[in-house]
Here is the input.
Amino acid sequence: MKAVGFYENLPITDEKSLQDVEVEKPKATGKDMAVRVRAISVNPVDTKQRLGNPPGGTEPKILGWDVAGVVEEVGNDVELFSVGDEVFYAGSVTRQGGNSDYHLVDERIVGKKPERLDFAEAAALPLTTITAWEALFERMHLSMDPSANKGKSILIIGAAGGVGSIAVQLAKLAGLYVIGTASRKETVKWARDTGADKTINHYEPFRQQLEGNVDYIFCLNNTDQHWENMGEALAPQGHIVSIVEAAENHDLNVLKNKSASFSYEFMFTRSMFETDDMIEQHHLLNEAGKMVDEGKIRTTLTDRGGPVNAENLRAAHEKIESGKTIGKIVLENN
Here is the structure.
């Protein structure tokens, strides 16, 4: 089958950084399903993996952790889906990704594709939705009942990006006052269009732009750069969640007097460690899909990047690495 992969870590300007390859079509066993990939989305994790540890061996490393497609084959232990089902999911970073004609995935981290979306629109959602959902409702322990969050506020750093675009929508549905950071006219507009009540510039001190402290902070961009700003802006007994690894050692005493807390969100944790609650991502995606079909949240697709091939994926990676993308880039298979 056709796929796009790489054999060594190279800058995206090098044509060998991502290559069109032929690999063996996967066979579904156990709880795995073989999905015919109809669309994939590109995320920052793709660029990090491309530049991370070398693949090793003779097989190419295949990226791509946002897939929408059709179940073609199921393993003997699959109970949640049948051949012909339309699905969407983010997969596991410890396995081959979905930048290929067919892809193997464990049924426990797969959801039913929203009916009102086409495959490209659906492929824009899984990774970012899981990330935002887990951060808000599991790490921050927010209720999905708007009345329980009355008067509470959240600052979303990087509100116009892939995760930010869905986090703003979910936070608004949960009844929070949502403040997003954005620094350009087009990103400010996008953040407001997805539901942000207010925007501030992340290149300027937060506290001076806010009308008081915020109860929650969701950091989607540069934990190192924003650490002191976050500590200053956070309300007493508040909570910070970040998805960005820190390169520096930070002083946790910034949070001490406020009895505040900090945690990381990594949406691959469940699949990476095959946790006992791994199936929660199946339930999460199904619930998010219902919200889409009910018109409560919308796709964050902004860029249809053409067919899935090495040239188009290199272009998508280059856009991601620019740090200026809005929403999500999606590529499609015929």
